Cytochrome bc1 complex cytochrome c subunit
Amino acid sequence: MKKLSARRRHPLAAVVVLLFALAVTGGLYAAFAPADTAKADDTAQSLAIEEGKKLYSVGCASCHGTGGQGTSDGPSLVGVGAAAVDFQVATGRMPLQQQGAQAPKKKAIYSQAEIDQLAAYIASLGAGPSVPSKSQYSPDGADIAKGGELFRTNCAQCHNFTGKGGALSNGKYAPPLDDVDPKHIYEAMQTGPQNMPSFPDTTMTEKNKKDIIAYLDTVNSSKSESPGGLELGGLGPVSEGLFAWVFGLGAMIAVAIWVAAHTAKAKKS
């Protein structure tokens, strides 16, 4: 007992006990850690990348190059991220049928599983925006009024005040947003497809994007009503001014003619 007590008072005793505890902890972690789960995730990701590469070689490489480096017919895809792939392919804009001023929205030719594989492959070429989760783009709990303010400041110049779309120069256009999946709206803000500027989180926060999505969901809802009466297509002050000019001025001209006609008739009598 005296020997054991003396060893406990030895200056290196605490170090020995600490090393022993660390060794036991490391051994237990190695024995019970979910290594198989992590390995399975890595294997699934590798398979997704490989399958995505096959799909890319068939449907995308002719324009974007065999390694995504881009060609004269298509831009580089290195660093665009999985979100750009999900937006472009899920909305049917890619693969492009023919070169034009702008890629139109059409029916997607790939399943969502195949789109995920393509996205995994493109993401492996270089870091970029990832596909958002539902909690990021869901309008639940968002500030609709703030979203309207942000939309009118940053988006209405092209998409009009309620997202009805509008014409741009040289055959380009801002598409309507009344029938767009919230996830794709979020991805468009993240990646800036075609003529649209990008709004990364450093420029527009995740909450601000949710607010804009909530605003569009509200104004384009079938249950929403225009508090001003006739909505005139929701195109903003131009259509409202044209309506006032044509019908308002027309009504005043009609009244002036009626008054003049009755005045002349009264003088004759």
